[in-house]
Design brief:
By secondary structure, the chain is of the alpha+beta class. The protein folds into two domains: 184 residues, no CATH class; 112 residues, no CATH class. The protein contains five helices and 19 strands. The strands form five sheets. The chain has a seven-stranded antiparallel sheet, with no helix packed on it. Strands 10-11-12-19-18-13 form a six-stranded mixed sheet. Strand 14 and strand 15 form a beta hairpin. The longest helix has 19 residues. The radius of gyration is 22 Å and the shape is globular.
Length: 342
Amino acid sequence: MGLDFKLRTLLKLNLKLFLEMHLLREGDFYNIPSGSTFYDGSDQSLFLADAEAHRQYTGLSVGQVFQSPFKNFLYESGVPLDGTNVGLPPIIISGIYVQGAFRSPTDLEFGHIIDYRNGRIIFNQPKPLTLPVHANFSVRGTRVDFEHAFNQQFQAGLLESKYFTNPLTSQHLVYTSGTVIQSFPAVFIELDDRELKPYEMGNRSAQITEKVNLYVWALDDIQRDNIIEVLTGQWRKTIPIIDFNIMPLPLSGIHNTLSPEYIPYQNLLRNNRTVTTVGSGLPIRYLAYIDDATSKNSPAMEEYERSRVSYDLSIYLNAPTTPLGHVFGPITNIPTIEDIGM
């Protein structure tokens, strides 16, 4: 069975969605229409066969995985855009073009799944490695990830180039593999200190304070400062903490496909009672308030500009008359292990 998602895990998952949403609203994305080109004339909408993917993932064959030069495809739709420089809305990938003809994921000949996080297509059956595959899609401008990925960044020794194409060798456009990380710009989430204190006298609920560090890495100071402005601009806002024990996570499975029961983030924030095969109930379990936000630039490393944005959060159970925990209702109604079939 495994553990449920506890508060700290839920906080991290929701911080990622919260920050991604606000970066997106400010226009931090790139549209890649089919046929568009890089500065060097290469087709940036072209997917190339990843002939090594079968060595990294069991159950895949050569010719099943086709990789775009980008990662972190957008899957959100209907998001209000606030940035003054936003032109066209993001393009949500809905299929691919094979030899000029559109093919949906359920196509009989070219059926596939979309790996949003790794920016690639996985065909249901192997295809020729020379098959021309294109798509219309949008990618995030800034990667939001956790401290574990931050640590891996240096173990793997992967560095982003200064160019939008992310070439890994001089004079050649090299497509990233599903296991290669496109590095920067990026924001890494770290939960640091925690303190618990009583909510009020006579109440069994607790207020939890968390120190959150957001490590910003960027290719230049302009890029870094723009990201810092978005992060610190969330000061005094509320972060609704959705309970993903009873709500589906947007991306699921080892191939990061869109959940068949995907509920847009902005719909979950309305906190209407929802029923899915994952669970049912009100999506929002806790509320986190950004009491304070600070930023401090760090010394540049190699060719990258760095900064740390810190949040002081106060977290409350979204039902202050019930005990702090993961079950709502009077404490006499909370089942024990013996009540559940022991």
